Amino acid sequence: DAGVTQSPTHLIKTRGQQVTLRCSPKSGHDTVSWYQQALGQGPQFIFQYYEEEERQRGNFPDRFSGHQFPNYSSELNVNALLLGDSALYLCASSSPVGSGNTIYFGEGSWLTVV
Amino acid sequence: QKEVEQNSGPLSVPEGAIASLNCTYSDRVSQSFFWYRQYSGKSPELIMSIYSNGDKEDGRFTAQLNKASQYVSLLIRDSQPSDSATYLCAVNLMEYGNKLVFGAGTILRVKS
Known about the structure:
The structure holds 2 protein chains of 2 kinds.
Chain A: E1 5-7, E2 10-13, E3 19-24, E4 31-37, E5 44-50, E6 53-57, E7 64-68, E8 74-78, E9 87-94, E10 104-105, E11 109-113
Parallel strand pairs in A: 2-11
Antiparallel strand pairs in A: 1-3, 3-8, 4-5, 4-9, 5-6, 7-8, 9-10, 9-11
Chain B: E1 4-6, E2 11-14, E3 19-25, E4 32-38, E5 45-50, E6 54-58, E7 61-66, E8 71-76, E9 85-93, E10 99-102, E11 106-111
Parallel strand pairs in B: 2-11
Antiparallel strand pairs in B: 1-3, 3-8, 4-5, 4-9, 6-7, 7-8, 9-10, 9-11
């Protein structure tokens, strides 16, 4: 049983560029959330997708957008990259609320903006 | 006021001792609580979850929850050098559909 898989694992981008990160949830999970973890901090919630729609969003600018596909996989897009976007981006998957809401994280995508 | 607070540490304990990690949270409607372990350069790994007041034991780990005091803790018995990591406390705001709010983490160092 594959867990949560993310790609790419590491990438370097230049300020102003755009980046797309990808996530496949754990088998049986239909909800995908994205978190940003800056160095020395805990993960911060970006947004969550369920049934191909953004269900809720954290305190992140519109430069951060996402998508969920019919197979429950998801993408995180960040436009106009800033140096401060350098962080570990984590994808988390879970089953619907009320059915054992354990949340599992992927290995993450390390983004460096130079 | 931060929603989830942890002492950043580092907390240093000798090998074989009990490590005690603490976390307080501000949202009274929180229903579920998690401890994640994160090694340097890696993603968080779930080690304990707790939903009801009291203690929950799993091997060398014991999670303790006191909802009245809005306090959750993690005890690690017989600490090993391999336990050296950052421990993240997370609260699930279930009314918002499985949204985790994390503390900043406590660095644990187990000295051999």
